[in-house]
Specification:
The complex is a heterodimer of chains A (129) and B (494). Helices cover 74% and strands 0% of the residues of chain A. Chain A is mainly alpha-helical. Chain A has one domain: Orthogonal Bundle (Helix Hairpins), CATH 1.10.287. Chain A is elongated and about 80 Å long. The relative contact order of chain A is 0.11. Chain B has 494 residues and is an all-alpha fold. Chain B has a domain of 199 residues. In chain B, strands 1-2 form a two-stranded antiparallel sheet. In chain B, helix 10 runs parallel beside helix 13, helix 14 packs across helix 20 and helix 16 packs parallel to helix 19. The longest helix of chain B is centred in the C-terminal third of the chain and has 32 residues. The chains are: A mainly alpha (129), B mainly alpha (494). At the A-B interface, helix 1, helix 2, helix 3 and helix 4 of A face helix 5 and helix 6 of B.
Chain lengths: 129, 494
């Protein structure tokens, strides 16, 4: 297979790596969630590409259809997409609640709040003794 | 008629019960419903255990579609062992949850709590029972998504960030897992575990399969919190509601370990993973690093729940250590420790639930004088702690003994010595709590006994009884673990 024949898989790898990079590199929680989505989308593409048979058509039970694509990975990834949507929904709901609780969705600011909280707790502990 | 469908009912029952729980819309009613379902699931698991031990492997075909095309539920010693473990913990924690949840979660949300709880329960059972790698992914996500929601129900706002971090790491782990599954599907055209075990050797020497193994191992290591991939765990356990900590600490990572066992031993086979790919030393060194590093971090914690969470990471290290030997003794040591650690951690996190119930904190500094004020609860903590250290006549001793024996068998006395050595670190962190609770006076001079409610005490003492029972009479657990290990190592028995 020529390198152009693997075009889909090159896209998969690029999307996968950029998605993972966004998750790691960005401090904004919404951006992290988007990165996660890009990462998952790459997997959807991988599954869809692997089911494709060259020259094949849709898998319909008919005499005239001889070559057809493998429908199983496509069906699997429908489940995968549903899982992805559910994950995004839960993540987005969490971000809304984080925004309400901390007033920010930037990771470093949240960390600052948490450290302050810990320090005030520790100070209270000292005055106790 | 109904009896032959027990494997399906095991998962379907809690799965259908969850939306019904949502409709009930009443705190007490939802709890009673969850209680009924967890007891039924427990009964089903016991009867399945009985059948597997007497008749051997059960293969159940969902919708009568024959495998490898249809989804197969496959029950051997290892999977039925997980079912019994998860349902036992389910029954115990549901009993405990009633009072604990009423205190920690607002009344309007309690039925939502039990809905998520049942979903998580169903997901974990599904992961243990199914014989289809993609089905495992679906159940993994059901259990994880409900776990994120459960963790975020806590009052503490840090639970929200902990839950979000868990969501990001957990999703990356699960996505790695399906990338791996996709790659082995490309190579073999099958998703059924038993079928994969037959087809994989023919294509094992390809880049695709090697990459698949890498993705699967890394993804699952994230899920089970193997040492360098554990960063989501401490905060998630520390800030979750008490009942959730007890349930998730005892089951979620353990079921992920079980899936890892399936991938390594059943799908790829021990000779491929530990022979051709030689992953043994890598897993071994990460496990040992985890045992020491996580125990050391546990020592410096101020919050006891966080301390216990770090200790959990160390205990995962012990389990993976047993697995990395890839011998019957090592593997059964790992599996026994999986069971024993679930008992211990469930007990200890429930103790912390009781402490939080009375003093609204789980910080060590607030626990001064608690040994006098909550004598039963703290006694259970001491027993759980001793078991974590591995004192004879408790379960912790049995599994560490077995792991040491496996290390000697593998001819490595250095590793054998590291096991009790890292247990010494457990002595230190358990002692820090015991010292404050028993040997420093309570700040306001209060000594009146103020125990947690009986319905929270009973589950704790059931676990304590289990810690002693399986610590003195370990024949049953060891026998099941050994048979599970033999069936895993012997490849698939068709």
């Amino acid at each position: 297979m020529s390198s152009l024949g693997l075009y889909n898989y090159w896209v998969v790898v690029v999307l996968m790596m950029s998605g993972l990079y966004i998750v790691v590199a960005h401090g904004n929680l919404v951006k992290k969630l988007i990165g996660l989505n890009v990462f998952q989308a790459s997997v959807f593409m991988m599954y869809i590409s692997m089911g494709k048979v060259a020259g094949g058509t849709a898998p319909i039970l008919d005499e005239s259809i001889k070559v057809y694509s493998n429908p199983l990975p496509h069906v699997l990834i429908l489940t995968g997409i549903v899982v992805g949507v559910a994950t995004t929904a839960v993540g987005a709901a969490l971000i809304v609640r984080i925004k309400r609780a901390y007033g920010t969705i930037e990771e470093y600011e949240i960390e600052k709040h948490e450290i302050e909280e810990e320090e005030t707790n520790a100070a209270e502990g000292l005055t106790c003794f | 008629m109904l009896l032959s469908h027990l494997p399906a009912l095991q998962v379907v029952l809690p799965l259908i019960a969850a939306p019904i729980c949502l409709v009930l819309h009443h705190a007490r009613l939802a709890w009673a419903w969850a209680m009924l379902i967890s007891w039924s699931a427990f009964g089903i698991a016991l009867s399945l255990l009985n059948r597997v031990l007497s008749e051997g492997v059960i293969s159940y075909h969902i919708g009568k579609w024959a495998p490898p095309w249809g989804i197969e539920y496959r029950l051997d010693e290892a999977s039925v062992f997980m079912l019994v473990l998860v349902t036992t913990i389910g029954v115990v924690v549901t009993t405990f949850a009633k009072e604990s949840v009423e205190k920690e979660i607002v009344k309007e949300k309690i039925h939502l709590f039990y809905t998520c709880y049942l979903l998580c329960f169903a997901g974990l059972l599904g992961m243990s029972i199914t014989g289809d790698v993609f089905n495992i992914f679906v159940f993994l996500e059901i259990s994880s998504l409900s776990a994120y929601a459960l963790i975020s129900m806590s009052d503490d706002r840090r639970a929200l960030t902990a839950s979000f971090r868990y969501l990001v790491m957990g999703t990356v782990g699960a996505t790695f897992y399906i990338i791996g599954v996709g790659l082995i599907y490309m190579a073999t055209g099958s998703l059924n575990i038993a079928d994969l075990a037959v087809k994989l050797p023919a294509v094992a020497d390809t880049q695709t399969v090697r990459a698949a193994l890498a993705f699967l191992i890394v993804g699952l290591s994230l899920k089970l919190a193997l040492f360098p991939l554990h960063s989501w765990l401490p905060n998630a356990y520390a800030y979750a509601p008490s009942a959730v900590s007890a349930f998730i600490a005892a089951t979620a990572t353990k079921v992920a370990v079980y899936v890892m066992l399936r991938v390594i031993f059943t799908i790829f086979g021990v000779s491929y993973v530990f022979g051709t790919m030689n992953l043994g030393p890598a897993i071994l060194s990460l496990a040992i690093m985890g045992m020491f590093a996580a125990s050391a971090m546990a020592i410096s914690q101020k919050n006891v729940k966080r301390l216990l969470a770090y200790s959990s990471i160390a205990q995962i290290g012990y389990i993976m250590l047993g697995i990395s030997f890839a011998t019957v003794t090592g593997l059964s040591g790992g599996i026994v420790h999986l069971f024993n650690h679930a008992l211990i951690k469930c007990c200890l996190f429930m103790v912390m639930g009781c402490v939080f119930f009375r003093i609204n904190s789980t910080d060590i500094k607030d626990m001064a004088g608690l040994g006098k004020r909550m004598p039963f609860t703290m006694a259970a903590f001491v027993i759980g702690g001793l078991s974590l250290i591995g004192v004879p006549s408790t379960v912790g001793f049995i599994s560490k003994w077995y792991l040491m024996q496996a290390a000697f068998e593998a001819g490595s006395w250095v590793i054998a010595i590291m096991i009790p050595l890292s247990s010494l670190l457990a002595v230190v962190y358990i002692w820090r709590v015991v010292e404050v609770a028993y040997f420093s006076p309570s700040p306001d001079g209060e000594t009146a006994i103020k125990e947690a409610p009986v319905s929270m005490q009973i589950p704790i003492w059931v676990m304590v009884a289990g810690i002693f029972y399986f610590g003195i009479n370990a024949e049953f657990t060891l026998d099941v673990a050994r048979r599970a290990a033999e069936s895993l190592l012997g490849g698939i028995v068709l």
